[in-house]
Fold these 3 entries.
Entry 1:
Amino acid sequence: MGSGSRRRERAPRRTRAAGSRPAGLVHERPARAGRGRGGSPELTGCLLALTLGGVPLAAVAQSLAFDGAVRIGGAEYEYVAAPYAAPYDDAVHTYATGKDGKGDYAAYDGAEWSSSRGWDDQSTDYAWEPSAVEYDGKQYVYYGGYDGTYYGNAYDGSSWSGWQAVEGDYEFKQASYANTYDDALYFYGAAADGALYDKSYDGDAWGDWAAANDAYATGAYQPYAVGYKGDLYADAVAKDGTPTYNVFDGQGWSGWRDYEYAPPAKYQYQPSAYVYDGAQHVVYTGDDDHAYYASYDGAWSGWQDLGDNYAYDPYQYEDDGNAYLTYTGEDGYAYYKAYGGDGGYDEKEEKEDDGY
């Protein structure tokens, strides 16, 4: 990783070029997670490099659907939001926001974690969880500031480009989200006016902010988007706590619609969506502190209860052919679960070794 001063760094994700663009996706969450130095858990198969304080968050085995949860980190450092992990340059980079408003990152190369660090040129105090994406050979990371502006930084494998504001006329009060689609980087935000906006980046210039869907009244949380079989699927929580999704085919959005089966609880926070083993997998956090899982392979499955102790946004990831679910618990610790293949994520386990 490039030089930095204090904690962990994570690379930014790429933006999508201007042209046809998907609806905006963004969410706000007041997450907290106890963070400390933890030893990387030994996981069969692969080690997902999601971490809080330097410990990999997840590893996945195939057979149940997200296996037992392992606690990550100790209590030396506290986060105000969930971490975000993304692979880049043969390593997994994890980004987080400290309770002191400082961005934090670390990288795991398959053998050991880099030291945790931050950036000397951070523009302002950051809030909420970061987002990251790889685009055009670089990793882009984005944070939302308490000043209502988003800030981005790019890592090319040796150094950071420096923090720059994502310009626009809107004030944003929720975390951002970024993904790539159709050779461009797409960036999303929920503005103070209650509307979702998105803009795209083609590697040379940004397009303008535009309302994603005039007919959609955003909830209090950041949506999530993932590509599946040539289309872009956006998942979000409506104001009444109902999970919804919208499909972008490259020309326009289908409009927000309900899942096939009614949810067992009201949902909150940003959902997680991931394509793995030929299917799309979604996880939502309920207002009952449980998480709920469904999959789509042409038809939606019913919702599976993943158990209790879920706070804030869940996050799915894949590394070395395995899939993972990571999340912050109501107890303030970070956990991971392994995916098994047939229905969700299995019961949790605590990681006992907190050594680095």
Note: The longest strand covers residues 126-135.
Entry 2:
Amino acid sequence: TIFIRPGEIISTSPVVLKTLTGDSQIVFGTEKGKVFVYTPGTPVEKPVLISTIIKDTSFIIKKIAGDNSFISFIAEPTIESIPPSPIELYFDNSGNLYSFSGEVPIDLAVTKDKNGNYISIVLTNQNNFYIISANELLSSFKVETSYQINSFSLTDLRKDGNIYIVFNNGNKLEARNFEGALADNYPVIDPEGNNFVMTPLAMDFEGDDRSELIAFTEDGRIFAFDGPSGRLVDGFPISSGAKPTAVPILFSDNGKPSLAVIDENNSFSGWNIGSVDGKYYWSEKNGNNLNSAFIPGAESVSAITEFFPKNRAYNYPNPVYDGQTFIRYYVSEESKINIKIFDLAGGFVAELNDFASGGMDCETVWNVGNIQSGVYLARIEAVSNSGKSESQVIKIAIVK
């Protein structure tokens, strides 16, 4: 047995990183705001401290994610700032950081963009997601819900060039891109109305080169959904009989994808859920058995190349019964969005302006709280940075 004794209380799961040279490193954080990087050691050699990253000693390092030589981590302050002021609580080992005000990061994962740059996804206790690359905030979005989102997973859901964030939201399982737009056919909802619990898992266990999502309910049922369509996979749901007490694990059993669950009855259950191993995207709490919370960048097999496909322009919900609707569109390039809304008599009602990231579905919120019932026409115009311009008119029905 090999021990590493840093002289401080370890506050994170240890992360194992495989470097480009094939060497391994063990990375962990402490309750004194430090991140230690060690060699793993051997039966005849003790682990060697490679480096130490020291932040504020009043911080607790909460989670580390990384790949190869890249490390990012989040921290929690032990001293409350009154009134709340911006505090640097996200860091990476290149010296980049990000500040939060009035909220604390609680979960973290890492992937790559199409150019191979590392991207960190940070979830806070205010249900905000932040997408960070180096010192740049690429995007952020808030999930409006009465539930606290505690964790998330990542997967290449549609192979459209985008990694999707997957998380539980009460009795709904949601998948969103980095702009916060819901994936087509999501959310999926438990038909019995029970809440989903634990971090959702993701892998291709049907052998169709598509990611399936596996989600767990508080009464012990286990669902598997086809990633792109949201369709319930044949043979599911299955049940362990009680609520899981820890995030279940996907693993290979002699070449067969398998699932293991421990529940509140102290029962251990295991299933072979497929006949041939596929790709494991998110197989346990911290992504994989290295605890690295990392998945590679998305494939672009089904990426849309058309600049502004008109069949991707619509709003939901439609009809609109409550306070807002989401006007959705896709652009293949970064673009300015202008939306003008008229009633059927041609009267001007509202104008919305937004900016859309290229290569993914984006949304603009229209607040209809002060809008009367009726049918409205929304003209969506997209103008790319390269000068391309397209438009589409959609109908929006409001019922009050």
Note: The two ends are 68 Å apart (CA to CA).
Entry 3:
Amino acid sequence: MKKLLLPLWMLIALNLYAQDGSLFKEDITDLASRNNLFAFEYYHYLSKKDSRNLFFSPFSIVTTMATLYAGSKGNTAEELAGVFHFSQDVNQQNLDFLQLLNHYKSLNSSVLQLKMLHNFWVQSEYIFQEDYLKSISRHYQAYVKNLDFRLKPEESRKIINQEVKQQSQNMIPELLPQGFITDRSRMIVTNLIFLDALWQNPFDPLYNNKGVFYSGNSEIDGVDYMTSKNVLVNYYENNEYQLLEMPYQGANLGMLLILPKQKDGIQRMSLDAEFYAEKSTISKQQEDSLLFEEINQDSVFFYHKVDIIFPKFKFNSTLNLKEDLIALGLGNSFQEAADFSEITGKNDLYLGEALHQTVVEVNETGTKAIAATAIGSVEKGITKPKVFKADHPFVFIIRDRSNGVILFMGRVMNPLEK
């Protein structure tokens, strides 16, 4: 009997086909580290594959794949655990995600929207394990909805796209392309992360100006720059790069910026997993050690006055997640050899297609992003503001400062690229 296929959107779309911190427990900190390790591995892979702007939500991808990991067995479970660094204790991991998702749900206010929406669209009358559906509904706050993929694949695609369009406030007008759903589709898993946040220190439009952005051998003219003077922020620098974090209002979230000191330094900045996993202690005598402690321990930052010159940008990204995840080692899950028998009680599903679509907009007031707090010491004896001028390629990370979870990660090579 052949297996049925499962697509994925994340904003992931995943298609299963038929075969025919003090605030958080240690487990949450561990979950954050696993999420962030995948974030850096995927960034490293994408940066080698594509020289343009990048943007993705590791948390969206990891959360969606965790729901499938909970329904997998054997080699498929081992493969998912290897790529996403999942815990062998699935029950505890499910509880950790529940705590984390409840935390993000509690952050919404008049100045910050952080929505995480998880839907399981399943074939009407197809048999799924009740315990599995209850578990993903409880731990991942997923809604299970019935559609008829078999007889109405195109109508089903339009229904899903319309809901995504509404949930994303029209930022994702069409997630699933024609042909994504077929009469063999049995489950579509969709995960949406939407962030609309205001800067704690907004930029004054009166200081905006046009300027040049230096990218590779190109000089990109007409870039809109925002300027903010004497802003007290978390700051760190060494011989190779500057780190600066701009906090958002209403929650302990912030955008961490990594700016190489050399204009072509982005090409030499190795943000791979091995680099990230280096747990060296940062000190003035160890300026060659890099981004593990900087990103995960605020103790390396100093509260410092900084003049910030930063480009406005807005762009979208659509990633072929199937191709990327196979390259990262997830080959078995996309073949009929896959074992997702905990989902249906039969060994009858495998992953078909996977998409990840994101939009990010950064301006004077804050950030809109969709797909995705300890303060350090005060450095003594320095009163002159540092200058952080992002007029060449840089990396940006939107993270939860209370536990370190990377929600979104990207790279700007050209602020004018849409």
Note: Residues 301 and 376 are 5 Å apart (CA to CA).
